[in-house]
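Researcher: We're teaching a course module on how sequence relates to structure. For the next exercise, students receive a sequence and then see the predicted structure as tokens, so they can try to spot secondary structure elements on their own. Here is the exercise chain.
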Amino acid sequence: MDNLAEVRARMVNEQIASRGVTDARVLEAMRAVPRHEFVDTSDRVLAYSDRALAIGQRQTISQPYMVAAMTEALALRHNARVLEVGTGSGYQAAVLAMLAREVISIERHEALASQARERLQRLGYHNVRVVVGDGSFGWPESAPYDGIIVTAGAPAVPDALRQQLASDAKLVIPVGNEYLQHLLVVTRLGDRFEEQRGEACAFVPLVGQRAWPDRHGA
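Model: And here is the predicted structure for the students to work with:
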């Protein structure tokens, strides 16, 4: 951890590029964003390991490879407005902020949202807006979006998210049961949608009125 730029470069080379992520802008963003700033102090030694880490409220910061793979699947342009469902620590939002003009990120836990908002501002990611709400409804007041990414597993694709996509934009979402999902890339083509099923993954559940019920009363 002494030379963090070198550690991040090694993370990108060994965990991400070697597994098929090729988008140069995504790789550069993964090299630049200081993941150690987005984990608990006690976990900083693990910040660049090939794993998800707990961040409180039964939530996690995703594995670096999964962050990169989902971001690449969005195929973002420089002037994009992006919606993220599931702010968590703010790490995915920071990566998106390097690639897009504006990022709106929804978090249902007020405590996590507040922490992420402060962290992103402190680190200079001023094009991210963190809001509190039920992400299964999206954030319709700022729609349409040039990309939507969901960082929690859903039982199905919420129709509200489909409808908030701009034409030719992509929605990347893990879909499956509460223990195992597959990445689904949904592309809007005018009034129709195309879906492409990707690799297996395991995310915390997407909790909301149009997703999984809240079994913990949080």
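Model: If you want an answer key for the exercise: The beta strands are 53-56, 59-61, 81-85, 102-107, 128-132, 145-150, 165-176, 181-189, 192-201. Residues 66-201 form a domain with the Rossmann fold fold (CATH 3.40.50.150).
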